TrEMBL record:
Name of the protein this chain belongs to: NADPH-dependent 7-cyano-7-deazaguanine reductase
Swiss-Prot/TrEMBL keywords: Cytoplasm, NADP, Oxidoreductase, Queuosine biosynthesis
InterPro entries associated with the record: GTP-CH-I_C/QueF, NADPH_dep_7-cyano-7-deazaG_red, QueF, QueF_type1
Gene Ontology biological process terms in this record: tRNA queuosine(34) biosynthetic process
Domain of life: Bacteria
Region described as Disordered: spans on this chain: 1-24
Lineage per the UniProt record: Bacteria, Pseudomonadati, Pseudomonadota, Alphaproteobacteria, Hyphomicrobiales
Biological pathway: tRNA modification; tRNA-queuosine biosynthesis
Protein residues bound to substrate: 82-84, 101-102
Enzyme Commission number, as recorded: 1.7.1.13
Pfam families: QueF
Family stated for the protein in its record: Belongs to the GTP cyclohydrolase I family. QueF type 1 subfamily.
Length: 162
């Protein structure tokens, strides 16, 4: 007979303040979305966390037509980790948000950095063509911590048909 894992009352997933583990409303704008953080159990170790968002969507602020991007978010955690469900909800809040590629990419990077205060963070926004021109946008908080292995983001430049 197998024993079910015990659930601690002070588990981060059980915290009433987190969106994790319970139904929450989908935010309809980035400023209404909440990013949650949880304590980093490996805070004394330098390591890299990568979030890949291959289907990011926002709206062109001029035409209102959809824009699509592949986002890569890399960070070296400090005391906090970014909780992934809250990131999913935050990213989804851009679906009806009108902003230029550069603004969306940098806004996301700055917001995450301000919420979790990582040792280092970078975001790459690989946007699909608008008007025939793909736009790639990159932002980071500063220098990579010494000795931290940071792999390439691995998103090929847009090649179109060729």
């Amino acid at each position: 007979m197998s024993k079910k894992p015990s659930k601690s009352n002070n588990s981060p997933a059980k915290s009433a303040s987190l969106q994790l583990g319970r139904a929450v409303e989908w935010p309809d704008a980035p400023e209404k979305a909440r990013l949650d953080r949880v304590p980093n159990p490996q805070a004394g170790t330098d390591y890299l966390v990568r979030f890949t968002v291959p289907e990011f969507t926002s709206l062109c602020p001029v035409t209102g037509q959809p824009d699509f991007a592949h986002l890569m978010i890399d960070y070296a955690p400090g005391q906090w980790l970014l909780e992934s469900k809250s990131l999913k909800l935050y990213i989804a809040s851009f679906r009806n948000h009108g902003a230029f590629h550069e603004d969306c990419t940098v806004m996301i990077g700055k917001r995450i950095a301000s919420e979790i205060k990582p040792k280092w963070l970078r975001i790459g926004g690989y946007w699909y063509p608008r008007g025939g021109i793909p736009i790639d946008v990159f932002w980071q908080t500063g220098r990579v911590p010494k000795g931290l292995w940071v792999p390439e983001q691995g998103v090929a430049p847009y090649r179109g048909r060729g």
